[in-house]
Amino acid sequence: MFGSVSVAGIDPFTQREQSVLPPTSTAAAIDVRVPRPQFADFPRTEFRLFASAAAAPGEPPKLVVFYLGVPDTTPELASEAALETYLAGRIAGARDGTGRKTP
């Protein structure tokens, strides 16, 4: 449905932006890592989804998903191995339907 994605950190007070991920094709899985300290200067993170695989400069996104600050549900993990294990479990649960939370 979306050919490419970009990610930007934004300061909502000054509108200053920092690119986290330039427009990238969604043909393969994409791993976006945002270091926690970046949220101090750029607390808004926008995922901009584009219809085309190669978003032209100035092309408006088809969909924007954002959050402000570090999400409350962000786990604190002590190592990259723990992060990889956690993410693999969450992805597997999302794919097979067992990872859903009940309201």
Describe the structure in your own words.
The protein is of the alpha+beta class. The protein folds into two domains: 4-72; 73-103, no CATH class. Helix content is 20%, strand content 28%. The chain is built from two helices and four strands. It has helices spanning 38-41, 80-96, and strands at residues 4-10, 17-25, 44-50, 63-68. Strands 2-1-3-4 form a four-stranded antiparallel β-sheet. The chain is globular and about 40 Å long. The chain starts with a strand and ends in a 7-residue tail after the last helix.
- Number of strand segments: 4
Number of spatially distinct domains: 2
Largest sheet: 4 strands, antiparallel
Strand order of the largest sheet: 2-1-3-4
How confident overall, as mean pLDDT? 85
Secondary structure tally, helices: 2
Give the ordered list of helices and strands: EEHEEH
Portion in helices? 10-25%
Unreliable stretches covering 5 or more consecutive residues:
none
Which range does the strand content fall in? 25-35%
C-alpha termini separation: 28 Å
What's a concise summary of this model?
The protein has 103 residues and is of the alpha+beta class. Helix content is 20%, strand content 28%. The chain has helices spanning 38-41, 80-96, and strands at residues 4-10, 17-25, 44-50, 63-68.
